[in-house]
Design goal:
Structural class: alpha+beta
Number of domains: 1
Oligomer: single chain
Shape: globular
Strand content: 35-45%
Number of strands: 12
Order of helices and strands: EHEEEEEHEEEHHEEE
Number of helices: 4
Radius of gyration: 17 Å
Distance between the termini: 18 Å
């Protein structure tokens, strides 16, 4: 898996990621919205909607999904597991080398989705070479519960 660009809400996180790991992080104003469906205000039920947005100079960009079920553990060997359960990161260095670093977090639960939307000025945010592939419907969309993580110091390999 390759991250094209990591967008985070804090400059300190972006700066450390760029300087220490040479990762393509940027800091942007961000917001999120959750529209819960169901009687229990602490649970995400089917048809709940989640939106994640960030502001660029060209305006607000957003990802929005509608949940189709309750949270479940990741299925071993699934595409969702491959995407969400990565415990090692690799970063190309300016001199052509590579740094490997460990990422620690508990296993996450995931919600499947029945609908997803991506509203973005792709050329402005990611570059012209990503307009065509990022304009297609996604082949996979899910929501992971997430958690605090620990990123260990990288080792040159």
């Amino acid at each position: 898996m390759v991250f094209i660009k990591e967008i985070v809400p804090r400059r300190a996180i972006a700066t450390v990621a760029r300087i220490v790991y040479n990762e393509n992080y940027v800091a942007r104003p961000m917001r999120h919205q959750l529209k819960r469906n169901g009687d229990d205000p602490t649970q995400l039920a089917p048809n709940s909607q989640l939106e994640y947005a960030w502001r660029e100079s060209s305006g607000w960009q957003r990802l929005r999904v509608t949940l189709s079920g309750m949270a479940k553990p990741l299925q071993p060997g699934s595409l969702d597991e491959f995407i969400a359960e990565h415990y090692w990161g690799y970063a190309v260095q300016r001199d052509g080398g590579c740094v490997e670093y460990q990422v620690e977090h508990p296993p996450w639960l995931v919600w499947q989705t029945s609908a997803s939307e991506f509203e973005c000025d792709i050329k402005h945010v990611y570059g012209a070479q990503f307009v065509e592939p990022l304009s297609r419907p996604p082949s996979s969309a899910f929501v992971a519960s997430g958690s605090h993580i620990v990123v260990r110091r990288g080792v040159r390999i």
